[in-house]
Structure formats: structure tokens, C-alpha cells
């Protein structure tokens, strides 16, 4: 959708989460501004604590009616896009909804004014599950927080495992909601796990919870097994970094790589720059060409320990059947799945 700029200055409304585990809103806006520095722009920033339907509508009305912006962008969950499209129909101006792709994907109705910009992490989590099942074994335990359980990561990882081996088994263990900051909760989570029971362990945590899990994991019986997770866990736990968390007992940590960044703030700065590229295309009415492909390639990464952490990145391709894209295959696999619980974007608590 083309941006219809009213004057010489491009006015952009920006919706950002105010309650986050990392300064992702600030990093996102920094990347956006730096990439658009050569364009005359003004920004109207709205900080939102909870992205409810009413709060989103209030912010959009303020941006379009009071601030008179030409478009709105922001870190907006995929779960809200259809509702936002309905709200902004009367303004006939675009909203670029940026998200990681952390929710279970679903087939959307045609969006007239909302332009999704997703990092499609759901594909990478699927690929990670496929890779882990192929290389480590068919039985795993996924440990996660109550918060992470509200997104589609676990279900996507399980679907990836089963795509390689339909008989694979993924068991779930969740830290009780009221015990997230207790060290003993993570020891209890791993206490009865043995290397005879599972082939590898999946960890879905971020922030202090990731550090607590990593500390408990190095003393667990399963610490010699491959550990699989997302980059948010890796950064917070200190894995592959010269920090206080002792990970010498672990064999290897496997993750995905997003936009070539090793930190969460770096990722969101890069995401802001990616958004800027999309905005420049919309100013000139350029549309993205989407080609049907038979292979999906995910960039995975591995940290090995041999006295010293050594990071390695590599590409991993999944061949799909016939002419169907990976998007279609995964979405079909979720036709009867219950939708995930949180409406906010990941890391926007």
C-alpha cells in the first residue's frame, strides 16, 4: 500500500510497548530513525503497557486524528492485525504491524490497510525442531516459563520434530507461575530427569529466568545432552559469553540466528532498519514479490564447549513436498490447534 504523504515532512506514528524485559522499543525506534535520517520525518510515539483492543484503538485515533500522521508503525502482535484493519478503514492510511512471528500462524482474511512485517521466527522454531529430531533423537523435554508457554514456540517446535519423525515425543515442563524467581523451582524442574529418558533438552526462557535455569541445568544429570533454545535464552543465560554463569558442564547449545544479531537490542535495531526499508518502498509504491519456493532455509547456530565457547553458524534447509510452501504446510498442521494466550508481542510483558 502506498503512503500518501500530505506535506514535505513524513509524519510517522509509532506504537511501542512500555513494559519490556529489554529496551526493545528504544532499540527499534533507534534503528528506524537512523535508517530514515536522510528523509524529513517527525515521530509521534505512543507507549502502550498492554495491547488490548481498546488501548490500540485509542492510540490509533490519537495518531491519525490528533497527530495527523501519514502512517502508523509499531511492535504489534499478529493476533491484533485483523481488528486493527477494521479500526483504520475510515482513515484509509497504512499501519505496518511488526512482530517476530511468535504466535501460531493462521490464515488471515485480506488486509486492506495493515501491512504485516514479520521476522517469521515460527519457521525457524519449526526448523530447529526438525533439525534436533534429525540429529539428536526423537525424545525431548521442553522446559519453559509460564510466560513463554503463552506463545506458539513449543507447539511449533513439536510440529518440526514430528515432521521429521512422526513418532517423536516432546514432553513439557513449566515453571509454576508464582515461582519464576525461585532458584529451587528450576532445580525441581530438572531433578528427576536422566539421560536415559530424553535425547536432548529444550529451554524457553529469557531474562533472569534464563540465568536461573542455566545455573540449575549445569548441575543436572542431563547437562551432558545437547541443549536447544532461542537466542533470547542464550543472551540472558550467558551461554557462549565470558560471564559468571558456568556452562562448562554443557556439551552444546543450538539456536536460531535472527537478522545476524547476537543480542536482543541488536536484533530490534536491525528490525527498525528493516522497517525503514519497507517504508521507503511504500513511499514509491514498491511491492514485495513473493515467490513460491520448495525449500525453506533457516540459519541455525551452535555454541560448542571445549574449554572455551566457540560460536558457529550454519544454514539448514527443509525440503517441502510438491509445490506447497513451508507456510502452507505448517498452517495446515495447526488447523485444529488452540490459539496461543498472549496478545502482546513477545518480550512486551
Describe the structure.
With 349 residues, this protein is of the alpha/beta class. It folds into two domains: 132 residues, Rossmann fold; 175 residues, Response regulator (Rossmann fold, 3-Layer(aba) Sandwich), CATH 3.40.50.2300. It is 32% helix and 22% strand. Strand 8, helix 7 and strand 9 form a beta-alpha-beta unit. Helix 6 packs across helix 7. About 1% of the residues have low confidence. InterPro entries: Leu-bd, Peripla_BP_I. This is ABC transporter substrate-binding protein. Belongs to the leucine-binding protein family. Keywords: Signal.
Which strands sit side by side, in order, in the main sheet? 7-6-8-9-10-11-12
| Integer average pLDDT | 86
Second-tier CATH architecture of the largest domain: 3-Layer(aba) Sandwich
Q: What is the succession of H and E elements? A: EHEHEHEEHEHEHEHEHEHEEH
The global form is elongated
Query: What would CATH call the homologous superfamily of the largest domain?
Result: Response regulator
Distance between the termini: 31 Å
Oligomeric state, counting identical vs distinct chains: single chain
Strand content: 15-25%
Determine Rg (CA atoms, Å): 21 Å
The residue fraction in helices comes out at: 25-40%
Number of helices: 10
By DSSP, the count of extended strands is 12
Amino acid at each position: 500500500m502506498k503512503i500518501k504523504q500530505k506535506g514535505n515532512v513524513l509524519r510517522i506514528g509509532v506504537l511501542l510497548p512500555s513494559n519490556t524485559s529489554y529496551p526493545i522499543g528504544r532499540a527499534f525506534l533507534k534503528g528506524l530513525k537512523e535508517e530514515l535520517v536522510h528523509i524529513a520525518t517527525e515521530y509521534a510515539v505512543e507507549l502502550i503497557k498492554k495491547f488490548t483492543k481498546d488501548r490500540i484503538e485509542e492510540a490509533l485515533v490519537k495518531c491519525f486524528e490528533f497527530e495527523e500522521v501519514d502512517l502508523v508503525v509499531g511492535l504489534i502482535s499478529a493476533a491484533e492485525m485483523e481488528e486493527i484493519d477494521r479500526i483504520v478503514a475510515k482513515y484509509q492510511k497504512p499501519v505496518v504491524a511488526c512482530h517476530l512471528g511468535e504466535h501460531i500462524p493462521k490464515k488471515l482474511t485480506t488486509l486492506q490497510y495493515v501491512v504485516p512485517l514479520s521476522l517469521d521466527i515460527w519457521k525457524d522454531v519449526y526448523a530447529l525442531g526438525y533439525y534436533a529430531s534429525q540429529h539428536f533423537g526423537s525424545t525431548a523435554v521442553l522446559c519453559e516459563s509460564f510466560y513463554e508457554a503463552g506463545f506458539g514456540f513449543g507447539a511449533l517446535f513439536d510440529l518440526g520434530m514430528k515432521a521429521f519423525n512422526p513418532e517423536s515425543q516432546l514432553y513439557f515442563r513449566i515453571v509454576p507461575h508464582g515461582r519464576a524467581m525461585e532458584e529451587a523451582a528450576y532445580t525441581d524442574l530438572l531433578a528427576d530427569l536422566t539421560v536415559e529418558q530424553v535425547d536432548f533438552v529444550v529451554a524457553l526462557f529469557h531474562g533472569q529466568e534464563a540465568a536461573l535455569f542455566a545455573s540449575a541445568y549445569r548441575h543436572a544429570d542431563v547437562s551432558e545432552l545437547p541443549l536447544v533454545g532461542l537466542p533470547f535464552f542464550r543472551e540472558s543465560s550467558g551461554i557462549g559469553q565470558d560471564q559468571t554463569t558456568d556452562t562448562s558442564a554443557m556439551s552444546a547449545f543450538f539456536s536460531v540466528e535472527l537478522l545476524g544479531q547476537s543480542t536482543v537490542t541488536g536484533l530490534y535495531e536491525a528490525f527498525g532498519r528493516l522497517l525503514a526499508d519497507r517504508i521507503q518502498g511504500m513511499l514509491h509504491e514498491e511491492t514485495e514479490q513473493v515467490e513460491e519456493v520448495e525449500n525453506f532455509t533457516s540459519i541455525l547456530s551452535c555454541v560448542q564447549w571445549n574449554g572455551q565457547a566457540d560460536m558457529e553458524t550454519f544454514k539448514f534447509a527443509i525440503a517441502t513436498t510438491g509445490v506447497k510452501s513451508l507456510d502452507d504446510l505448517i498452517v495446515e498442521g495447526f488447523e485444529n490447534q488452540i490459539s496461543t494466550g498472549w496478545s502482546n508481542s513477545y518480550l512486551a510483558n
